[in-house]
UniProtKB/TrEMBL annotation:
<keyword id="KW-0175">Coiled coil</keyword>
<feature type="coiled-coil region">
    <location>
        <begin position="35"/>
        <end position="62"/>
    </location>
</feature>
<feature type="domain" description="T-SNARE coiled-coil homology">
    <location>
        <begin position="139"/>
        <end position="174"/>
    </location>
</feature>
<dbReference type="InterPro" id="IPR000727">
    <property type="entry name" value="T_SNARE_dom"/>
</dbReference>
<protein>
    <submittedName>
        <fullName>STX8 protein</fullName>
    </submittedName>
</protein>
């Protein structure tokens, strides 16, 4: 966790240096020193993320942490990896910001007022659950839905039978 915190601090420092570099470029000043610093910080961040991946893999495979904790830590590493890719793209000045690109993928382009389902918060009932827990929850929900459909089917069958009996009674009365 201390290695993760150190990696987060490096990521924050990189973001600050990139903003400083962009400010220098707007003012027409030279930012060559910042390019070198940012490049070395990005390399350092990449190494820390690789170390985190290795440590996590080792901890999960030797059962030093539970599967749920392993999943939680994997999510943290994945978030950090995404952040590193965003910083790399910002460093290279690759067009619009990555968040804009990501949101435009799901909405068919950059539009105002369109909400992206991938940017929504995770619901409280699934927060912190591992893959196996999510599968188990989905199976339980499907079983409940199947039970509801079975009950609905029996009700409809009973109504059909009642309708046929009413039809027969009407035929007899006529």
């Amino acid at each position: 966790l201390s290695l993760y915190d150190a990696a987060c601090q490096i990521a924050q420092e990189i973001a600050e240096k990139i903003q400083e570099r962009n400010r220098y470029q707007r003012n027409g000043e030279s930012s060559a020193k910042l390019h070198v610093v940012i490049r070395s910080l990005l390399q350092n961040l990449r190494e820390k993320i690789d170390q985190l991946k290795d440590l996590l893999l080792r901890a999960v495979s030797t059962h030093q942490v539970t599967q749920l904790e392993g999943d939680r830590r994997q999510n943290l590493v994945d978030d950090l990896l995404t952040r590193q890719k965003q910083l790399q793209a910002s460093y290279k000045n690759e067009g619009p910001e990555p968040d804009t690109i990501r949101s435009s993928l799901m909405t068919g382009g950059v539009k105002r007022g369109v909400t992206n389902p991938w940017l929504l918060e995770e619901p409280e009932e699934t927060r912190g659950l591992g893959f196996d827990d999510l599968r188990q929850q989905q199976r339980r929900i499907i079983e409940e839905q199947d039970a509801g459909l079975d009950a609905l089917s029996s009700i409809i069958s009973r109504q059909k039978q009642m309708g046929q009996e009413i039809g027969n009674e009407l035929d007899e009365q006529n």
